[in-house]
Write a structure and sequence with these properties.
By secondary structure, the protein is mainly β. It is built from 3 helices and 8 strands; from the N terminus they run βαββαβββαββ. The strands form 2 sheets. A 5-stranded antiparallel β-sheet has the order 2-3-1-4-5, with helices on one face.
Amino acid sequence: MLNVGKIEEGFVLDHIPAGKSMSIYYHLGLDKLDCTVAIIKNARSEVMGKKDIIKVECDINTLNLDVLAVIDHTITVNVIKDGEIVEKRVLELPLELKGIMKCRNPRCITSIEQELPHIFYLSDPGRELYRCRYCDEKNSERF
């Protein structure tokens, strides 16, 4: 059996669907941080069958929860202090995303005005659908 030690201060991303941990690792920019990161793939889970887990030993404020929520808002975020879970954060789909996705519409103002930030708003929470603030194009990009 694999044994990964507990972390003293940081966060644990739990209940990640099996196989999604590497995508989350790169989208959150964990590859650019100078901290300890442990990725556990295909861990046994009674509820999910298999799941991935990411343990990161650094400040939770380095994590962009909006990016994580867009990837999968059912992921559990456990904040760790002094080796104990002090907080469980619930992810919610953000109402607005800025600089996370890019509009793919070639006629959108963001394709002409390169310095404009790409801003999307949540148009349909049930379908988790975002639209561009400028041209109203649906975002089909999924992480």
